[in-house]
C-alpha cells in the first residue's frame, strides 16, 4: 500500500550540492539525490477518499514564495544511537507558516493531530545500525558546511511506494505558491 506525505522538493542544483555533503559509508544509506526533500507533514497510509480531500484542500493554501536556507548537519534522535543524519533549516518563519497550514488541513481530514513536533530538516542518510555520536565514523561528516539557499516556489503531495530497488517517490500534485515574495 502507498504512503503519502507533503513536502518541498529541493531544486536539482541544490540536490546535487547537498548530495555531496556526506561521503559514501557502509554504515549509512544515503537518501537518493532525486528524493532529497523537506517533509512538511507525513500522512502515512490512508484511504483514497481522504487523500482526495487533502489533495483538494491543499489548493486553498494562498501563501507567497519564500527563500529557505539549508545549513548545519544534525542527528536524530538527540540521545542514544544515531538513526538519521540531517541538514538543518535557517530563516524558518515563512516555512513554519506553510507547515502550519498543511498540518491543519491534514489533521482536519485525518481527524488526528501530529504525533511529533515539527523539526524542519532534510534527511541525508539513515543509519543501518545505530552508533553513538562520539564514534570516529561521525568524524567524516563536516561540522560546518556551506549554506544552500533557494526560493521555495511550490510544495508537493507525494506518494511513496516500496519497489524492487527501494522506496520510490512520485508527485501526486504540485502546488504553486504565489509569485510575490514574502519578507523574512
UniProtKB/TrEMBL annotation:
The keyword Acyltransferase does not apply. A motif (HXTX 1) lies at residues 37-40. The keyword Hydrolase applies. It comes from the Bacteria. Gene3D superfamilies: Cyclic phosphodiesterase. Keywords: Hydrolase. It catalyses: a 3'-end 2',3'-cyclophospho-ribonucleotide-RNA + H2O = a 3'-end 2'-phospho-ribonucleotide-RNA + H(+). Its EC number is 3.1.4.58. The active site is at residues 37, 121. InterPro entries: Cyclic_Pdiesterase, RNA_CPDase. A motif (HXTX 2) lies at residues 121-124. Pfam families: 2_5_RNA_ligase2. One of its GO terms (molecular function) is RNA 2',3'-cyclic 3'-phosphodiesterase activity. HAMAP family: RNA_CPDase (MF_01940). Belongs to the 2H phosphoesterase superfamily. ThpR family. Hydrolyzes RNA 2',3'-cyclic phosphodiester to an RNA 2'-phosphomonoester. This is RNA 2',3'-cyclic phosphodiesterase. It comes from Rhodohalobacter barkolensis.
